């Protein structure tokens, strides 16, 4: 078995050197091609920082967009052609590092590219070189799903959670606790963003390595990147749940139903995330991490939420009718339909009364007639119903 592994390492090194030689023939992006090949070679170790720095520099905002696009195409080509779990995993690590630490220009270009080519969907990827490689291949597929969900979450939130700087408690003249943007969202945005965050958290929890992958150093290196992001994802989700509870008893029924499902899922994910953290505490690369203390939302509150849903209004009371005339029409449409025939004959009779008398009495009638419709309008429909 050791002889076979040594042969595979030699074969991988030969392929890397051949690829580098071919990359040197490319006069336009020679340095970038060489850096990508060396950062994602067949050596079972994390990508070297000097190669990553060259790739980051090639995708900065100071470079032309064509350079950024070429880098993405080169990474996609590298990921699509390989059947080696080491090369695939190191390529995903490079993409992850660029999304976390690179220029926003790379993320924007990468988002556009992945809408046309789903390069992170690795459902068919499998390294058949050994039974041990099957466990590694499974984790590579899971890691790709997490990165794809990370991009999808960015499309919904319109900002990167990892780049968010949370203020610390006690800063500034007004001492306040640090919290994420989800703490200040309105109900509509909250009900849109929280499911995206929970789906990302679901993919993150699924990144728990199994079998031989649990003790592999390269897998643990990539898992450490996932763990670093988990803290802010949890913080954003937790702040959103607090905001959700504050706004819940003012929600209409259709929003309250969504809120109950989100709250119920938050309780389930808190337990799963706690188990995930517990399994990662013993890893070599996670010994210096400060894991947050998770507090599961009280599940007894769900019954209170469900009781409110039964009596919740179907529409929120409108406090500013001038700004939302369409909602007023939808709300009071049945009442207007019943009373609609009444004002029509009244309007038709008034011009007849005005046309017939021409003398002075007509002018007095014309002067006295305006107050009558005004009184009827101020009393709304109550006067006519009586």
Labels describing this entry:
mainly alpha, 0% strand, globular, 17 helices, 386 residues
Protein described:
- The chain is an all-alpha fold and 386 residues long.
- The protein is built from 17 helices and no strands.
- The radius of gyration is 32 Å and the shape is globular.
- The N and C termini lie far apart (95 Å).
- The C terminus is likely disordered.
- InterPro entries: ANTH_dom, ANTH_dom_sf, ANTH_N_plant, AP180-like, ENTH, ENTH_VHS.
- Keywords: Coated pit, Cytoplasmic vesicle, Endocytosis, Golgi apparatus, Membrane.
Q: Compute the gyration radius: what is it?
A: 32 Å
Q: Please trace the helix and strand order, writing H or E for each element.
A: HHHHHHHHHHHHHHHHH
Class from secondary-structure proportions: mainly alpha
Strand content: under 5%
Helix content: 55-70%
Q: Please tally the β strands and state the result.
A: 0
Poorly predicted parts: 169-176, 318-386
Instruction: Tell me the major beta sheet.
Output: none
Number of helices: 17
The dominant shape is globular
Question: What's the overall average pLDDT, rounded?
Answer: 78
Please give a quick description of this structure.
It contains 17 helices and no strands. It is mainly α and 386 residues long.
List the SSEs and their pairings.
Layout: H1 2-23, H2 30-39, H3 49-58, H4 65-81, H5 85-101, H6 104-116, H7 131-157, H8 187-205, H9 217-248, H10 253-280, H11 301-311, H12 325-331, H13 333-339, H14 343-355, H15 360-368, H16 371-378, H17 382-385
Helix pairs in contact: 1-2, 2-3, 2-4, 4-5, 4-6, 5-7, 5-9, 7-8, 8-9, 8-10, 9-10, 10-11
């Amino acid at each position: 078995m050791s002889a076979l592994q040594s042969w595979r390492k030699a074969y991988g090194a030969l392929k890397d050197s051949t690829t580098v030689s071919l990359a040197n023939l490319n006069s336009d992006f020679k340095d970038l091609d060489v850096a990508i090949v060396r950062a994602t070679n067949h050596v079972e170790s994390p990508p070297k920082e000097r190669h990553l720095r060259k790739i980051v520099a090639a995708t900065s905002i100071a470079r032309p967009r064509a350079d950024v696009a070429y880098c993405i195409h080169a990474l996609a080509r590298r990921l699509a052609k390989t059947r080696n779990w080491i090369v695939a995993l190191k390529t995903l690590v490079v993409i992850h590092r660029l999304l976390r630490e690179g220029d926003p220009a790379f993320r924007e270009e990468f988002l556009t590219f992945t809408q046309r080519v789903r390069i992170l969907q690795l459902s068919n990827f499998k390294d058949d070189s050994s039974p041990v490689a099957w466990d590694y291949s499974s984790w590579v597929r899971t890691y790709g799903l997490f990165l794809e969900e990370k991009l999808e979450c960015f499309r919904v939130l319109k900002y990167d959670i990892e780049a968010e700087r949370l203020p610390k408690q006690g800063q500034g003249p007004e001492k306040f606790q640090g919290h994420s943007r989800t703490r200040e969202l309105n109900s509509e945005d909250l009900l849109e963003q929280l499911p995206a965050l929970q789906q990302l958290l679901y993919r993150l929890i699924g990144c728990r390595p199994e079998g031989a992958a649990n003790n592999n150093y390269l897998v643990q290196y990539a898992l450490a990147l996932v763990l670093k992001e988990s803290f802010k994802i949890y913080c954003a989700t937790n702040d959103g749940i607090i905001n959700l509870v504050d706004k819940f008893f003012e929600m209409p029924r259709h929003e309250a139903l969504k809120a109950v499902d989100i709250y119920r899922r938050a309780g389930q994910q808190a337990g799963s995330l706690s188990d995930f953290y517990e399994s990662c505490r013993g890893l070599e690369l996670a010994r210096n991490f400060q894991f947050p203390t998770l507090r599961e939302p009280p599940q007894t509150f769900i019954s209170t939420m469900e009781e409110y849903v039964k009596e919740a209004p179907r529409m929120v009371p409108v406090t500013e009718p001038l700004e939302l005339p369409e909602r007023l029409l939808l709300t009071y449409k049945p009442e207007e339909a019943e009373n609609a025939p009444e004002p029509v004959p009244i309007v038709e009779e008034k011009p007849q009364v005005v046309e017939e008398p021409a003398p002075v009495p007509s002018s007095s009638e014309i002067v006295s007639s305006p107050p009558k419709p005004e009184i009827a309008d101020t009393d709304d429909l109550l006067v006519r119903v009586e």
